[in-house]
Amino acid sequence: PGYWLTIFVTQAISYLTLFVLGQDYIGVSHKPLDVLINLLLLNGLTPTAANNSIVRGGWFVGSVVLLYLLFPLLYKIYTIRSAWWNNHRCFLFPLGSLAIGTFILLSIHWIAPTFFFEKKGFLYNSFVNQLPCFALGFSLFELHKNQTKVRCSLIKALVFLAVTIVLFTSNWTYKWMLYPTTFGI
User: What is the three-class DSSP state of 24?
Assistant: First the structure.
């Protein structure tokens, strides 16, 4: 309800500035389909203006709602009763979701190359790209719950930090696919 109220207030302010000042002051989309996509909380699935131009940061609300709707299914997958899976799921669950998400995003990019590879565009904001970070949360919760100590030497931490800095400062087109998971780690 708070998000829906924010959509209403943002649209009202945008229309007022448009009609009173005669200019689009805050850059909000007024397309009915974009507003509807946000009202239905599906903005994490669409690369249109609905993704982030109805409410700034609204993509996050849409993605989080979708993740929590999928939570029972993800939990069922995570808790499959298999000795092998139980021994490897903390590593494989986030890695597998990263691989699946990357495959989906690269497939879309292959079909439509200019679809969403711009800085902080749909690639970063998409639900599919946020899924590995959510999956990482399952693993981190299990490690915390079982009070498992993760050994991480200072050298490993410094190497990871160096790789992260290089990634963030690089001009590599696909780096936005790694941001959410890297931030999670």
Answer: coil
